[in-house]
Design goal:
The chain contains eight helices and 14 strands. By secondary structure, the chain is an alpha+beta fold. A hairpin with a 2-residue loop joins strand 3 and strand 4.
């Protein structure tokens, strides 16, 4: 059963089958019980009619007994002798009974016991009374050579002479058995047909419900084969789970398309950025080989350093994209700022420190140091005369701010500058502008440390990290 439709149809069929079997069994039991109670009531009425005749003093041979085929009746004395039997009644529960008073027949031994086997002989009846209690039991009777199942009612009475008698009257169970059998046969005949209908309807309904899923699967297979991530799966008009699945799938495809496009741009930009220093370094080395006196050693060293930094940035971005988790070490941002600023005292634009509140965060000391270094490099690149860095506490957040006195970032570009290989001043020399990876790396590291990096005003960069 590799098909969802087949499994759904089979499951629904099994559930319905079990429910119908349980319901049918309950119906048969209730029907049988009701019919048995009805037969017992008929038997009780017949037994009480005969008992009433005995209580009024009617002689046993003068009793008006019902037809034996409908209600077989046996009247027995206290000593068990049969005093009267219904017409054509030959045996009860396999024991023969006499056909008339004084025949010497013996009534069945259970005639004076109820269904629980309790002896009712201790009831003290007065002459002319009929016992209010009645006992029921199932048995068989032979009426004119035909043996059938009956529901018997046993009633005791005393005649006017004080002689106690037990009247046992039966009602045929054949109608009850026929009715139960008819209902059972109808259920056995209808159950398979109903199950076939249930299975067919479930198959059709499931097939129609899953048709959009097949469309989604087919389109996804086509997208996989063509590698065209601009395609989208069909979205059904329904607002059910399948519709939400289609919309989520399209959102995933859009995100995947965007990621692939960013990856392509990244590879193209990285290749372009690497080509410049490599070509420059090669040119200088070739000139140095041909004319050693013309070798620009400082230029070659500068290109090598630039190439080394670019390779390090690309390697870090690759590790971040691969999902590398930051460490769990405690890092004091204030101490990190003091250490970094002390190494920049001789820079073109000095770095001044403002408030340095004690704030420890959890993460990688090396990656957070790279973030601070990139922010200071960016600030010094655009500052006129000063760069200021501060660390403050705001509730559960540690906030590191880097501010310069440069022209600032236009509001429309405050998010774009965090994209990879983006430099707002495209006309400036590459040597002065860098590769455009510093801020992208800084934001990626901040996000992976549970924080954020944004431009709050034109020239203020704010790094927010949760306090350890």
């Amino acid at each position: 059963m590799g098909s969802v439709r087949a499994r759904a149809a089979a499951g629904a069929t099994v559930v319905v089958a079990l429910a119908l079997i349980a319901a049918g069994t309950a119906v048969l039991l209730v029907l049988r019980g009701n019919l048995q109670n009805q037969a017992g009531l008929e038997a009780e009425v017949a037994a009480r009619e005969v008992a009433a005749q005995i209580a009024t003093g009617t002689a046993y041979d003068k009793l008006d007994l019902p037809d034996g085929e409908e209600h077989p009746v046996v009247v027995a004395a206290e000593d068990g002798r049969v005093r009267a039997v219904g017409e054509d009644v030959r045996a009860v529960d396999g024991k023969r009974v006499g056909a008339a008073q004084g025949a010497g027949g013996v009534a069945p031994s259970a005639a004076a016991e109820d269904e629980d086997g309790e002896d009712d002989d201790d009831r003290a009846l007065k002459p002319g009374e009929v016992d209010d209690d009645v006992a029921y039991r199932d048995g068989t009777a032979d009426v004119d050579g035909t043996v059938g199942d009956y529901r018997f009612a046993v009633v005791e009475a005393k005649d006017t002479r004080g002689e106690q008698a037990t009247v046992r009257a039966g009602a045929a169970l054949a109608p009850e058995q026929d009715a139960v059998g008819s209902v059972r046969d109808a259920m056995l005949l209808g159950l398979p047909l109903l199950l076939v209908v249930v299975a067919g309807v479930t198959w059709l309904v499931t097939r129609r419900a899953l048709r959009p899923v097949e469309g989604i699967r087919g389109e996804m297979a086509a997208i996989t084969a063509s590698t065209d991530l601009s395609r989208r799966v069909p979205v059904p008009s329904s607002k059910d789970e399948i519709g939400r699945l289609a919309r989520t799938t399209n959102e995933t495809l859009a995100a995947l398309e965007s990621a692939v496009e960013r990856q392509r741009r990244f590879v193209a930009d990285a290749s372009h950025e690497l080509r410049s220093p490599i070509a420059s370094l090669r040119t200088q080395l070739e000139v140095g080989v041909a004319h050693p006196e013309l070798l620009d050693v400082p230029g070659a060293v500068e290109d090598t350093v630039r190439l080394q930094r670019l390779a390090a940035d690309l390697l870090l971005l690759a590790r971040l994209d691969a999902g590398e988790r930051p460490g769990g070490a405690r890092v004091d941002l204030a101490a990190m700022v003091r250490e970094e600023s002390s190494q920049r005292v001789a820079d073109r634009v000095p770095v001044r420190t403002g408030e340095l509140a004690s704030a420890e965060v959890a993460g990688s000391r090396g990656q957070l140091g790279r973030v601070l270094g990139n922010l200071l490099d960016n600030a010094q690149r655009h500052a006129v005369a000063s760069v200021r860095v501060a660390v403050v506490r705001e509730g559960e957040w540690a906030v590191l701010r880097v501010e310069d006195d440069g022209p600032g970032v236009p509001e429309s570009e405050r998010e774009r500058i965090f994209e990879r290989f983006v430099r707002l001043d495209d006309a400036r020399a590459r040597d002065d502008g860098g590769a455009g990876l510093g801020l992208a790396i800084a934001r990626d590291v901040a996000v992976r440390h549970g924080g954020s990096l944004a431009v709050r005003t034109g020239s203020v960069f704010e790094l927010r990290l949760p306090v350890a």
